[in-house]
């Protein structure tokens, strides 16, 4: 947390100017503190995911503890280089976890392999379903908090993280995104969240349709489309583009029977 520039447990941030400051033998050097902190955030995330083992929950407990600490001090209105580090950390964390689960055969993400097959991990080093579900809930809570950020580039990474989580556990994301859509989209007070909510909807369309198919498909889909109509805003090109992208993905994924 200190190397990422986060003020966890103290009133000031610790800035690292080079990897040499951390007794690293790596010759990589970044003069810019902001880039260095985000680089360390990425390294920390990769290390935590790669060290998860079936018979050792130390990395899992570390992730959960860190998420709990972040929620205690992070607020959507907060600003600083530490929040960039935070968004990068959770983006890389969810991305690496998804890739590892795909590699282990736990998730059928791609219809055809894009790369040569790799040897499966030995049984005691695989991520168990219990470990996966245990860390995804606190991670998703932090990401939802980050989505509410008023800084677009930070919210973007957190939204992508939620999309990755949805591939690993759709039940954790879909009900919540539908609930948030019904609360935030029709309410002018939360206009700043419209783009973020619609972006998340666009990233989880396949899982969204599967969920709706089990819960009064036609009515819920029509209600959802009506909620997204305010996304067509001539004064906000980004919001309009996100909404049209969602409609395009939705139409391309709808079953022929519905059309």
Describe the structure.
The chain has 259 residues and is mainly α. It has ten helices and no strands. Helix 3 packs parallel to helix 5, helix 4 runs antiparallel to helix 5 and helix 5 crosses helix 6. It is globular and about 50 Å long. The N terminus is likely disordered.
Give the SSE map.
Blueprint: H1 33-50, H2 58-73, H3 81-103, H4 129-147, H5 152-168, H6 170-184, H7 194-203, H8 205-213, H9 217-228, H10 237-253
Helix pairs in contact: 1-3, 2-4, 3-5, 4-5, 5-6, 5-7, 6-7, 7-10, 8-9
- The rounded Rg comes to 20 Å
Main β-sheet: number of strands, strand sense, barrel status?
none
Shape: globular
The end-to-end distance, rounded to whole angstroms, is 50 Å
Residue fraction in strands: under 5%
Number of helices: 10
What is the oligomer described by this structure?
single chain
Work out the number of β strands: 0
Residue runs with pLDDT of under 50 for 5 or more positions: 1-33, 110-117
Residue-averaged pLDDT, rounded?
A: 77
| Class from secondary-structure proportions | mainly alpha
Q: Could you spell the SSE succession in H and E letters?
A: HHHHHHHHHH
Helix percentage: 55-70%
Features:
10 helices; 259 residues; disordered N terminus; globular; 0% strand; mainly alpha
Write a short abstract of this structure.
By secondary structure, this protein is mainly α.
């Amino acid at each position: 947390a200190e190397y990422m520039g986060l003020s966890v447990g103290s009133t000031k941030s610790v800035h690292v100017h080079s990897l040499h400051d951390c007794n690293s033998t790596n010759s990589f050097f970044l003069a810019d503190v902001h880039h260095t902190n985000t680089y360390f955030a990425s390294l920390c995330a990769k290390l935590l995911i790669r060290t998860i083992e079936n018979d050792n929950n130390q990395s899992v407990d570390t992730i959960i503890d860190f998420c709990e600490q972040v929620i205690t001090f992070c607020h959507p209105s907060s600003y600083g280089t530490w929040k960039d580090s935070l968004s990068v950390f959770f983006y890389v964390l969810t991305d690496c976890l998804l890739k590892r689960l795909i590699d282990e055969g736990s998730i059928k993400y791609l219809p055809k392999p894009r790369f040569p097959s790799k040897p499966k991990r030995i049984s005691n080093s695989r991520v168990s379903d219990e470990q996966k579900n245990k860390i995804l809930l606190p991670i998703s809570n932090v990401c939802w908090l980050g989505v509410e950020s008023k800084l677009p580039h930070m919210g973007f990474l957190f939204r992508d993280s939620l999309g990755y989580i949805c591939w690993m556990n759709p039940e954790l994301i879909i009900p919540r995104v539908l609930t948030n859509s019904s609360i935030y989209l029709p309410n002018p007070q939360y206009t700043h969240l419209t783009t973020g909510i619609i972006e998340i909807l666009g990233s989880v369309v396949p899982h969204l349709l599967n969920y709706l198919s089990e819960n009064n498909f036609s009515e819920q889909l029509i209600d959802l489309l009506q909620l997204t109509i305010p996304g067509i805003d001539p004064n906000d090109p980004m919001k309009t583009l996100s909404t049209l992208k969602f409609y395009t993905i939705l139409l391309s994924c709808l079953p022929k029977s519905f059309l």
